Amino acid sequence: MAMIDPARERQRLLEFYADQLDGELEKVAGQAYELTEIAREVLGAELAKRGLNVKLVEQRPVPPAPPVLPGDPPPEPPPVEPPPEGELELRRMVTIRQFRDLPEALLAKGSLESAGIEAVLTDDNIVRLDWFWSNLMGGIKLKVDLEDVAAANEILNQPIPDGFDTAGTGEYPQPRCPSCQSLDVSFQELNKPVAYVSAYLGVPIPFHRRAWRCHSCHAEWEEDGVPGSADSSI
């Protein structure tokens, strides 16, 4: 098979397109994906020479999907590409609980993990460094995957267990109220005016408070387990 001489082919196409009408050239430009590279180049030059603002269609158009008729099965959805390897899907994690103290947050996280639900604590490092900022930021946040929200809430709404075992922490017994032995206890929230002043100044302001509070009998006590009043003073 003889090879095509590019110079002679270019001259032939120049003469061919020069004899075509404007409408014929526009039609050819709409199917430029079927032309050779030399033909597209010569066609573009001829269109520019005539001042025709016509764009060459160099990619074959995708045919439209066939219409869905009554009784036909619905079309399959396009495949979902998996996220890049190593990319954290934090966008799918939602906050379901907020805690004022770390032991309470660890208890909830351990309850979910023991049920096979992946849970993540955020802002827990802040409470280890500065308890004032933890309260100002809304406390420690417990997050689960969007698909596990209903199951996680069902587990957390169950009666409080006596303790839990979580990876890296070991056995943690849930604190009890020394007055009524209830497990529904937590740290009392900081005095907010004092916390705001302390955060603004950047230095801790000493004040006295009762560390634990029972939500059943409303007793309050410090780490020594002796119930006391709810009053606190700076």
Automatic annotation (TrEMBL):
Domain of life assignment: Bacteria
Q: Where is the composition biased (Pro residues)?
A: 61-85
Q: Where is this region: Disordered?
A: 61-86
Could you tell me what this protein is called? Uncharacterized protein
From the broadest rank down, the organism's phylogenetic lineage runs:
Bacteria, Pseudomonadati, Acidobacteriota, Terriglobia, Terriglobales
